[in-house]
Sequence to fold (536 residues):
Amino acid sequence: MGFLTALPESIFLQTALATALLASIACGVVGSFVVTRRITYIAGSVAHCVLGGVGLARYLQVVHGWSFFDPLYGALIAAIGSALLIGWVTLRAKEREDTIIGATWAIGMAVGVLFISKTPGYNENLMSYLFGNILLVSRSEVWLVVVLDLFVLGVCGLFYKKLLAICFDEEFARLRGVHVEFYYLLLLCLTALTVVLLTTVVGIILVIALLTLPSAIAGLFSRTLLQMMVWGSLLCCLFTLGGLAVSYDLDLPPGATIIVIAGFFYLCAVSLRALPFMRRFLT
Amino acid sequence: MTAPAIQMKGVSFSYDRSPVLEGVDLEVEEREFACIIGPNGGGKTTLLKLFLGLIEPQSGSVLVFGGEPEEARKRIGYVPQYARFDPRFPIAVLDVVLMGRLGKSGLFARTTSSDIKIAKDALESVFLNNLEREPFANLSGGQKQRVLIARALASDPEMLLLDEPTAGLDMHAEGHFNRMLNDLNQRMAIVTVSHDLGFVSERTQNVICVNRTVRVHHAKDLTPEMLDDMYGGHVRAVDHDHNHPEDCDHGDH
Fold:
């Protein structure tokens, strides 16, 4: 049975599709900020720290009976916490940024592995957190995804001008009285929330590709950041939808399929840009 | 009488222990056209950051329009070097200029129709009103420079502060640019910072020479020969003689 014929009957597929499309919108918007502000590796580091949060949440659920503590809450705490930590250190401590990013990246993951090793009967689900399994998203989690999505989009909409200003020219924004450090930390928090949204789709390891590739492709032909966001969101919807369909039909892991499709289109777009006659269409 | 645009008294600044500026006294009057020159590493950028209140001197005082630089910097239209920008950032020219209005609008920085009018007027005064929808990335270096000036003008400044304004401009563009600044100088003080003497306008009153210490020359006292001489002197200072700040001030030799 093909993806499209199965869709009307399968509540799993509908939930998966809803989650993917919702996450895609935030992905295009925040991904454009991430690409232009060049904080992809901060996003990567935050994503890997999510494993620490998820591990902790599962440990508390299973070993200590905190059944209300959904892994998604753990993921949110870890993502926001690590984003603020990296942001604070790079703004204040004058430490080398890449050292902090790399260290946080690995430490977050190590913490996750330790908690998971101490959680009985849990190892089989580790793979689904690392590489995503969108078919495992529950109905209650979809609501959390909706709330997160609306929150991220709302904040981006309200503070669009200020976020654009700090991405384009931080120094000038500071001279015009914009609280640059606050908005930088806000941007990192929005990135963290989007990373959590996207980990439900493609998992921790693959998330930076989905966060950046659609916006990077959109950036090749967009004239404004807003255009880049709209096209980034559309492309992300297309990749997740295509990936879900292909993975369902060919019985492949959905997260990896989505990333391979996004990567393929990115390589095609970049190669096309190198052709002389394409220069007219791409900025 | 109103306060001078910039007033520095006995200013010293050092990063860690190596002094960058020592005992600097200088004054820029309102409506003055001043050029700051000096070799790379001579302290020009530090001077600029002190004007803008981005750093504080270890000793001495900096006053901008008679007040603290951090308070007064909104009245300065700062024009950075265009080469510093991400050449592929997707943004339209008008949106760049509208950033000049940031400090004037509220928390959510909503753009009003008067903001747009001010931005368009600013573009017109740098002769780029036909390019407002164009992506910033597609412009030439000289055009980008003028957009950044328009952005500074949109904030309704009382002084323009330009960092290396003619870097990357050819002779023709430079002459055009020079006339434009002369016109703007009717309305506001203009301070340019440059590593060479290639850029000194006929309206320039003072040439401020920075190489750890500061000497101010009246431009009218400078003959073309002296300018050539000083330019040669400062090149020599860059090549060989970092320890003799006097080399910048060739008039003493």
Q: What stands out?
A: The mean pLDDT of chain A is 90. The CA atoms of residues 30 and 191 of chain A lie 6 Å apart.
